[in-house]
Amino acid sequence: xxxxxRIGILTSGGDCxxxxxxxxxxxxxxxxxxxxxxxxIREATHGxxxxxxxxxxxxxxxxxxxxxxxxTVLGTTNKGNPFAFPMPDGTLSDRSQEIIDGYHQLGLDALxxxxxxxxxxxxxxxxxxxxxxxxxxxxTIDNDVxxxxxxxxxxxxxxxxxxxxxxxxxxxxSHNRVMVLEVxxxxxGHIALNAGIAGGAHIILIPEISYSLESICxxxxxxHKLGLNYTIAIVSEAVCTAAGETIKQLGQFGxxxxxxxxxxxxxxxxxxxxxxxxxxxLGHTQRGGLPSPHDRLLASSFGVAAVDLIAEGYYDRMVTxxxxxxxSVPIAEAIKDYRAVDPHDTLVTTAxxxxxxxxx
Length: 360
Ligand code: F6P
Description:
Blueprint: E1 6-11, H1 19-34, E2 37-41, H2 46-49, E3 55-57, H3 60-63, E4 85-86, E5 92-93, H4 96-105, E6 110-115, H5 117-130, E7 134-138, H6 154-175, E8 177-183, H7 190-198, E9 203-205, H8 213-225, E10 231-236, E11 248-250, E12 256-258, H9 261-273, E13 276-281, H10 293-312, E14 317-322, E15 325-330, H11 331-334, H12 346-353
Parallel strand pairs: 1-2, 1-6, 6-7, 7-14, 8-10, 8-13, 9-10
Antiparallel strand pairs: 2-3, 4-5, 11-12, 14-15
Helix pairs in contact: 1-10, 4-5, 6-7, 8-9
């Protein structure tokens, strides 16, 4: 056994299914494999700003049930960039040094940061500024982290959206309706595209492919002519209106919240086709619930690989899934490119081959 280490782990950004299984895998590998200590940091970097830093010692017996639990027992936040942190008086303050000091006060040898591209970029900046030995693990239901084929949480979200589509088929057919399912994904259409194919949607709308209402109504009409009295459409939250606008609201912390395109489309479909429409907005159910078996496998592999990277002294790297295996890449390279749906992606070709309307 090598040198004794004390490592920290935090979850950052929006939660998703699979975070708890990562925590379990990290603790198992670090404690059983190397005899190290693992410290769980509460609510992302916020826990490191607190004095004393808000942490919990993660023991093997504590993490045992985490494999099947959704969410994150450490808590998380997708607000409060430490380099421009909103203060009670309305000003923005750079609190990065407090976080760095918190890391060093805890006597940590390394930090495992679990996050999407935004969180990983912030963690990397903190690591560079403060000499933090950082290893990253990609998570996001949006599956938009550049270099990894899969991020934690995506598979579970696709399963949930697929199950929703499965259910909508029966009620749609019973009432001769057009059902519109709005899903998350931010600026990437991966959830809509994957769930749309898996769940037998007739229309899939994603932000990467522009649509026309005529094309959508033509599809509904064609199905009617074939004696198919109902239609299922799935739409990604960042799809624009016909006028090219994204439907969004400003949240209480000034954040941009997407949502509403499903209702807009349903109204437009009724206007142009006369069909009776109903809308389902899946929202945060896509982030909750039990992690799928695939997310448990990915989380377990990523957790073990992240600890092994620390053991080998490789830092500033992110674990990724590529060509059927876990490898690591520099974090800077991993988050360099945003990974939206490529309009020539195999699944786009598959959808077209199946006769699914992509709106164009
Ligand atoms: O990035 C993950 C995600 O679930 C997006 O798909 C969605 O737009 C956003 O987070 C919702 O964030 P919040 O939890 O702040 O409402």
